[in-house]
Each structure stands twice: as structure tokens, then as C-alpha cells.
Amino acid sequence: MEFTATAKIGLESTVAFQLHKLGILDTETLDARVKFHGGFDEMAKALLWLRTAERLLLTVGTFRADTFDALFEQTKALPWSRYLSPRTRIHVNGKSAKSTLFSVSDCQSIVKKAIVESLKAAYRVAAVPETEEEVIVEVGILRDEVTLALDCCGAGLSRRGYRTYNVPAPLSETLGAGLILLSRFFPDTPLIDPMCGSGTIPIEAAMIANNIAPSQNRSFAAEQWKFLDPTVFSRAREEARDVMRHDPLCIQGSDIDPHCIDLCKKHAKKAGVMLDWKVRPVKDLKTSWRNGVLICNPPYGERLSDEKSVNALYREMRTVFDTIPDWQINLITSNRDFEKIYGKPADKRRKLSNGGMVCTVYQYFAKRG
Ligand SMILES: C[S@@+](CC[C@H](N)C(=O)[O-])C[C@H]1O[C@@H](n2cnc3c(N)ncnc32)[C@H](O)[C@@H]1O
């Protein structure tokens, strides 16, 4: 079977890397997605372990269509009864870009009608009463090429379940994990986020360091699929529990706001990780740990009224981070003047999308003693 793991632009290589670590080597990396082939065991592992993928889709079929008739007939011809019972509730999501069939709502209703007709013919029934669990079908049309797929996730994969309270402007969990995977972090590397907000980066780092499957405490849409052997998921979860570690970690999150640190403690407890949390302004950052990775997501200064304070904060960060030259510094911001204000060109820049906003990760490599 063919699966597609969707990802934020800039994080595709981290998804392919994680698939390879799971032993899934047959991957193809494209813009904002990685395709791979495998069975349901691979699907369950990918759902539990992919830290930077947004969704996982199981391809049912692909074809070209530039008329509604072609869309209907080719959708109907796909083997829907292999996946759906004659009572499945079907919900169709859609998107279309650069295609003749641009009305997404029309495409959604045509696809739904075609699937119902296909099921009626396959099961020789007069109607599909839709009394069972919902299955989500995704129709994607790009340059008249239609892909029909089943959504394996339900809620997006960034919803790990540990972040129950929010602070303003939190990073998505997938982006937090992506920043760590793009840095030089290894399980025994010290890591600090000195502006940790709700704790996303330190918690994701702790899960990586202790080999904890990020989605082990949540459920997936695929677990409701009637055609799937339920032991697929119980086996994958058991394997994940067996390889999880509880090593003490040198990972710290700090923030100027005591309310944020209270939330971090709650979130870490829910995620099952033990970390060091501190209420501290970044100007007071000090550490005895050596050769670490600092990752942070400072305020961006989007509003004009914030500009002065954000500029002062970026300059303060430079002064403090210069006192730990053996640390690799990684900063993500959408502020285009960041390097000018910070006063130092980055060793490497990477563009990433953060909730529709284009951000840059500025990386300053460590000077090892
Ligand atoms: C964009 S948020 C970080 C969000 C975080 N990455 C998350 O996922 O929740 C920026 C954080 O910087 C903190 N902050 C602002 N000024 C600070 C300072 N001078 N020292 C330390 N933290 C500061 C804010 O309290 C806020 O939590």
C-alpha cells in the first residue's frame, strides 16, 4: 500500500529520516510530503513514531480528471469495499490547486456520491445507511491529478495530548520536534530553551532523548477501521513501551513568566517526562553544562508597538548567548531583520512554515574548546 506523510515545508527530510529509523526505507520525498510503501504494521508504527509529520494518508487511488463525470466514474471504479463496510459514515475533505475542477465543495459531494454508488454495487444493497463510525476520505487535486486517500489520523499528529493549556503563540509540537531534529541534538546532549512558553521544545527533546513514541497516549482514526486487525495497534504500542527509556536528562526550560512554568510542569507530567524548569529572564541565563544545544522561539515583534522591546530582547540574547560559545544556538523567528538586530550573521539559515507564517531558523554553530 502507498502512504503519504504530510509535513510542513522544510521538515520533509526529517520525516524521511524518521521513516528510515523505523526500517521503512522505500520513501520518496516531495514538497510538503513523503510517500512510502508498507503494510498496516508500518502504518501503525508511523502513526505512533513520526514526530514531524502533520497527517498520514492511505492512498486508495490516483487518476487524471478535468470533468465532474470523469471524477465520478473513476472514483466509483476504485475498490472502496476493500476499506469501507456498507454502513460506513463517509466524510469527504477536499482541496484543489491549479486544476480545472476548482470547486472543492462540488468535488467533495461528487466523490461522496461515487463512493456510495461503488459500495451499493459491491455489496448489492439499495442504500448505505451510514450508521457506523465515520471514515474520512481526502480528495486532493493538483494540476488535474486526483488523489483519493483515507485519513489514518483523525486529529492532526501534532496533537500528542500533553499540551492541554495554551500560552499565546505556542509552537506546534511537530515544529518543536523539527527544530530539535534539525539541530545537533543527541540523547545525551544538554538542551536549554530559555523562552519555553508552554514547554513544547524541552518536552519534545525529552521524548526524543528517552525514545518515547510521541503519539503513544492518543488514538487514531485508523483504530476504528472495521477491516483492520486491531492487534496491529496493540502490537505497535507494546513495542513502543518496550523501547522507552527513563534516563535522567540534562534538559531545561525557562521563561520570564511564572504562569508559563506552571503550565510546563503540568504538560511534562502528562507527557511522562522529568525536566528542569525555572522562572528566569533570559538575561540571567547561566549554565555549568557544556557543549549543549540551545533552541528558542522568542517573541517575533509582529506588531509595531512591540518593535522596541523585541529589538532590545534580541540584543540582550546575543550578549548572553555569547557567554556560552561551546553551545549551538538555534533561533526561530519570522522577524526579517533578526540578524541585523542580533548583530551576527547566522552560520546556517533554514526556512520553515509556522502556522501559515514563513519563519527562518538561524543556526550558530558551537566553538568547541
Ligand atoms: C513565542 S513564545 C514561546 C512559545 C513556546 N515555544 C511554546 O511552544 O509554547 C515566547 C516566550 O518568550 C517569553 N519571554 C519573553 N521575554 C522574555 C525574557 N526576557 N526572558 C525570558 N522569556 C521571555 C514569553 O513569556 C513567551 O512565553
Structure, explained:
The chain is an alpha/beta fold and 369 residues long. It has two domains: 2-151, VC0802-like, CATH 3.30.2130.30; 173-210 and 245-364, 3-Layer(aba) Sandwich (Rossmann fold), CATH 3.40.50.150. Helix content is 31%, strand content 24%. The chain has ten helices and 14 strands. It has helices at 12-21, 40-49, 68-76, 104-123, 173-182, 200-209, 231-243, 258-271, 307-321, 338-342; strands at 2-7, 27-30, 33-37, 53-64, 89-97, 134-142, 145-151, 191-193, 251-255, 276-279, 293-296, 328-333, 348-354, 357-364. The strands form two sheets. It has a seven-stranded mixed β-sheet. A seven-stranded mixed β-sheet has the order 10-9-8-11-12-14-13, covered by helices on one side. Helix 4 links the parallel strand 5 (89-97) and strand 6. Helix 2 (40-49) packs across helix 7 (231-243), helix 3 (68-76) packs parallel to helix 4 and helix 5 crosses helix 6 (200-209). The longest helix is centred in the first third of the chain and has 20 residues, at 104-123. The protein is elongated and about 75 Å long. The relative contact order is 0.12. The mean pLDDT is 95. It binds S-adenosylmethionine.
